[in-house]
Amino acid sequence: MNRQAQAAVMFLLGAALLHAGSTDLYLRYVKAGLQPLLLASGGVLIAAALATVWYERRRNRSAGHPHDHAHPEPRISWLLLLPLLALILIAPPALGSYSALRSGTALQKPYAYGTLPTANPAPLSVIDYASRAAYGHGRSLHGRTVRLTGFLALDHSGAPYLVRMALNCCAADAQPVKIALTGSLPPVLRPDAWLDVTGTYSPRLTHDPVNNGPIPYLNVTSAQPVPVPHDPYDETWNN
Amino acid sequence: MAITEDAPPGTEAGAEPGPESRRLSSPLVLTLILLLAVLAQSPIRGLLGTPLMQSWMTVFVAVTVQALPFLVLGVLLSAAIAVFVPPSFFARALPRRPALAVPVAGVAGAILPGCECASVPVAGALVRRGVTPAAALAFLLSAPAINPIVLTATAVAFPHDPEMVLGRFLASLLVACAMGWLWQRLGRTDWLRPPAHGAHEGATKGEAFWNSVRHDTMHAGGFLVLGAMAAATLKAATPADWLRAAAGNPVFSVLALAVLAVLLSICSEADAFVAASLTQFSLTAKLVFLVVGPMIDLKLFAMQAGTFGRGFALRFAPATFAMAVAGAALTSAVLL
User: Transmembrane stretches, by residue range (chain B) (predicted)?
Assistant: First the structure.
C-alpha cells in the first residue's frame, strides 16, 4: 500500500471512529467512558492522513519526480480495511442471547444493598435484582413489585431468561447476568427481544449449567416489548 | 516490494513495473475493494447473519475499536520519542550498566497509562533511540500490568482480596525484570529486526513525526486487526465446560487460565474483572491469568512480530509465557 492509499485508509478509519463515537454506535462495542478517547484518536488519524497527503505533495513538488519506495511498505496494513468495513457497512449488534447462553452468569456477592427506589413498581437493574434475590434472600424485595429491562434468552429446553450483559471495557469481556422467568409470560418468546418486565420476588433459585453460578427467579406479572436501550450493556461495575 | 504484490495482474505483464504504475496501483485496488464491498453489501450481510458470525463480528469490532485509541496514543508517544527526544537523554536517564537499567526501565513502566497496545510501539521507539534492548523489553512487559489504572481496576475487581493488587504488581515487575536480564544474557541483536530507517526520515521534524505516526499506525494497526481476529475466533469457539473441568485440578487450573489469558487477549484494564468472574478457580490461577495476559497474548504476539520481527517474537513469546507462569505461581506461593 503506498502512502496515498495509507492516507485514505487512515482518513476513513478516523472518520469511522468519529462517526461511531459521536452516535450511540460505539456503545455496542465499548464502555461509555471511552468516548473522548475514541473521538480524539479519530481526530489524530484524520490529522495524520492530511499530514501524509500534504508532505507527499510537497515532496513530489520539490523533488520534481515521485520519490522511490526504498523501504518496504507494510502489506499487513490492508487488514485495517476489515474493521472499517465491518463498522460502516455491517455495524454488528451488541452481544445477545447466543453469547449469553455460552458463558456462565457473572453474578457476584455485592458489598451492600442500597435502599429500593420508592416508585412502584421499583425500577431495578437486572444485576441489582439478581444480587438481592440470590445473596440477600430477597429481604429487601418482600412485598414489592419491581421493573427490570433486559433481553430474552431461551436455553435448549426453552426455559426463558432475562439477561443483561455486564461490561467492563469492551464487548470481549462482556459477561451475562441472568434471571429465570416464571409467571405470566407473553405467549410468543423471541430470543434477543428486549423486554420491560414487571414482577415480584420468587425464592426459587437455580444454577447456571455453565459455571454453577446462582440464577434467581422472578415472578412475572406483565412483560412489554421495548426498543434496545441507549446503552445495551450494564456498566455499573465500572463505577 | 509489497507494492508489486498488491498491484492488479495487468501491471505484471511488463518487464518491470515502472514507478508510475506502482504509484497508481494501491489506491486503485483500495477503490475497487471499497466499491465492491458497498455493492455486495446485502449478500455479505446475509452470509454474516448467523448468531455465531454476528457475535464474532461484534467481538472483533469491539477489540479493534477499544484498542485503536490506545494504539494511537502509543504511536504518538513513540513518534515523539523518535523525533523530539535526543538519544543522549536515555543515556543519562538510565543507568549505564544494563543489569541496573532493566529494573529502572521496569519500574518506569508504571508511568505509561494504558493497556498493552500502547506499549509495543513505545518499546520499539526506545530500541531505535539506542536504549539497550533488555531495558526496553522490561518496559514493554511491565508497562501494561503495573500502571495505576490497571492496578486500580484490579483493586475494584477483587474487593475482598486486596493482596491480589500487590501480587499482580510484584509478580509482573519480577517477570519483566527477569525477562530483561534473560535477554541480556542470552539475547542476540540479530534476532531483532533492524529498525526501518525510512519511516522515520523527513526534511523537517514535523515531517519525520507524521511519517512515524503514519508508519506505526498502519503497521501495528494491521497486526492489531490480525490479533483481534484470532481473539474473536477463540472467544466464539472456547467451550466453557472445558474450563469447568480444568478448575478441579490445581496444576491444570493454573495452566488453563494461563492459556486462556493468551487466547482471549483482553485489554489489561479489564482482565481483572474477567478473572474475578472465574469463580471456580483458585486465587493462584487468577493471579497467573492477570500476570500472563498483559505480557503475552495473541494480539500482542502479532504486534511484537510486526515491530521486532517474527524471529524475535517466536523466541520471546514462549519464554515470556513460561516465565510469567512461574513468576506468578512463585509470588502467590509467598503472598497468597
Answer: 28-48, 60-85, 134-158, 165-183, 217-234, 246-266, 272-292, 312-335
The answer to whether A53 contacts chain B (CB < 8 Å) is no
Of all helices (H) and strands (E), which one includes residue A127? helix A126-135
H helices of B85-115, in order, are 87-93, 98-108
Size of chain A in residues:
239
Distance between CA B199 and CA B216 in Å, rounded? 9
Please write the tens of the pLDDT for every residue from B68-86: 888 888 888 888 887 888 8
Q: Find chain A residues with C-beta within 8 A of B157's C-beta.
A: 168
Average pLDDT per run of 10 along chain A, which is 239 residues long? 89 96 94 92 96 88 57 76 91 91 85 84 92 88 92 92 89 90 90 94 90 91 93 80
CA nearest to B227 within chain A: A79
Question: Quick check: A175 and B279 CB within 8 A?
Answer: no
Task: List, by residue range, all CATH 2.40.50.140 domains of chain A.
Answer: 97-238
Are the CB atoms for A3 and A56 separated by under 8 Å?
Answer: yes
A4 in contact with chain B, both atoms CB, cutoff 8 A: yes
Q: Tell me the residues of chain A between 134 and 163 that have a Cβ less than 8 Å away from chain B.
A: none
Q: Which fold has domain A97-238?
A: OB fold (Dihydrolipoamide Acetyltransferase, E2P) (2.40.50)
The ipTM (two decimal places) reads 0.92
